[in-house]
Amino acid sequence: MKIDGTHYRSLWWNSENHVLEIIDQRWLPHEFRVIPVATMQDFADAIYQMRVRGAPLIGATAAYGMALAMAEDASDANMDAAWAFLEKTRPTAINLRWALDRCRAALRPLPEADRAAAALTLAHEIADEDVEINRRIGEHGLALIREIAARKPAGEPVRLLTHCNAGWLATVDWGTATSPMYHAQDAGIPLHVWVDETRPRNQGALTAWELGKHGVPHTYITDNAGGHLMQHGMVDMVITGTDRTTRRGDVCNKIGTYLKALAAHDNGVPFYVALPSPTIDWTVSDGVAEIPIEERDAQEVTHVQGLTDGGGLGTVQVTPTGTQGGNPAFDVTPNRLVTGLITERGVCDASEAGLSDLFPNFAKAAE
């Protein structure tokens, strides 16, 4: 996607300096900073500290981390050590382990002398595949938006609601939940997007920044406003992303997604999840019982970063001193609340049968 007319991915390989460069998302939407990721500790910090964030982007970043590890020491022992070092950074998003497993499986049979080059090539492939997956999700989601637009009076916008940031900043490009929005905007379909703030890290501000750069009309709302809007017929469809989806279609996403799904269900609003296939965990069935939920630093809840009146970035405490903060980063939306899953292969029911029909090879391999 573009920032002020210049195309960016959320990460890219600097072939001149032989280093991965990323948009450091900790400072957005107020400051745009690009930093190199040059050491294994840099990779771990980038993922854990959310310099990069979003399941697909975490996976792509981890693949480049494995490439660096192979460039430093291509032994089996170092491969396994790098896998373990990166895998522990974020426990919930399945793309991280998916990318690490894919790299290790591809590199293990190779002679050590060939592993560094092969690992970098594979990291490029994983990044490029993510872009294409998300582009195709956008095309399938566009069809759903067209159906809604066809039923509305001429010129009236399709009103979408999204939670967190499942945009191009959370992927290598296009985004998952935002990809249909960008496709619809480019197709000339009138849109208006309700953007949840998504406490505690206010990642909705990243979505608002993205949509604004692309010219998509939007309004930034509090997390608790969505149900009210649905009650008053002001939401035509909800689209969110996902960090891990079970084989039966339970969806694990940013905390607060479950409440949006409940409100949508109660008000008859379609609730769709944009789902790249690497985010499906075929080994898990019951999301509530089986998916580990990351508990992040309480300071993300007790403190807020933003622009000060003087124009600089600052952090303020919003709770009474001594108040304990709890910070579960994700929740699970049961498949019964999900209208459908928008994948790169099409739209399906949120069920084991629906996913298996679209991805029979993956489903069979997991049996």
From TrEMBL:
<dbReference type="GO" id="GO:0019509">
    <property type="term" value="P:L-methionine salvage from methylthioadenosine"/>
</dbReference>
<keyword id="KW-0028">Amino-acid biosynthesis</keyword>
<dbReference type="InterPro" id="IPR042529">
    <property type="entry name" value="IF_2B-like_C"/>
</dbReference>
<dbReference type="InterPro" id="IPR011559">
    <property type="entry name" value="Initiation_fac_2B_a/b/d"/>
</dbReference>
<keyword id="KW-0413">Isomerase</keyword>
<protein>
    <recommendedName>
        <fullName>Methylthioribose-1-phosphate isomerase</fullName>
        <ecNumber>5.3.1.23</ecNumber>
    </recommendedName>
</protein>
<dbReference type="InterPro" id="IPR027363">
    <property type="entry name" value="M1Pi_N"/>
</dbReference>
<comment type="function">
    <text>Catalyzes the interconversion of methylthioribose-1-phosphate (MTR-1-P) into methylthioribulose-1-phosphate (MTRu-1-P). Also catalyzes the interconversion of 5-deoxyribose 1-phosphate and 5-deoxyribulose 1-phosphate. Part of a bifunctional DHAP-shunt salvage pathway for SAM by-products.</text>
</comment>
<keyword id="KW-0486">Methionine biosynthesis</keyword>
<dbReference type="InterPro" id="IPR000649">
    <property type="entry name" value="IF-2B-related"/>
</dbReference>
<dbReference type="InterPro" id="IPR005251">
    <property type="entry name" value="IF-M1Pi"/>
</dbReference>
<dbReference type="GO" id="GO:0046523">
    <property type="term" value="F:S-methyl-5-thioribose-1-phosphate isomerase activity"/>
</dbReference>
<feature type="active site" description="Proton donor">
    <location>
        <position position="243"/>
    </location>
</feature>
<comment type="similarity">
    <text>Belongs to the EIF-2B alpha/beta/delta subunits family. MtnA subfamily.</text>
</comment>
<keyword id="KW-0396">Initiation factor</keyword>
<dbReference type="Pfam" id="PF01008">
    <property type="entry name" value="IF-2B"/>
</dbReference>
<feature type="binding site">
    <location>
        <position position="203"/>
    </location>
    <ligand>
        <name>substrate</name>
    </ligand>
</feature>
<feature type="site" description="Transition state stabilizer">
    <location>
        <position position="164"/>
    </location>
</feature>
<dbReference type="InterPro" id="IPR037171">
    <property type="entry name" value="NagB/RpiA_transferase-like"/>
</dbReference>
<keyword id="KW-0648">Protein biosynthesis</keyword>
<dbReference type="GO" id="GO:0003743">
    <property type="term" value="F:translation initiation factor activity"/>
</dbReference>
<feature type="binding site">
    <location>
        <position position="90"/>
    </location>
    <ligand>
        <name>substrate</name>
    </ligand>
</feature>
<comment type="pathway">
    <text>Amino-acid biosynthesis; L-methionine biosynthesis via salvage pathway; L-methionine from S-methyl-5-thio-alpha-D-ribose 1-phosphate: step 1/6.</text>
</comment>
<feature type="binding site">
    <location>
        <begin position="53"/>
        <end position="55"/>
    </location>
    <ligand>
        <name>substrate</name>
    </ligand>
</feature>
<feature type="binding site">
    <location>
        <begin position="253"/>
        <end position="254"/>
    </location>
    <ligand>
        <name>substrate</name>
    </ligand>
</feature>
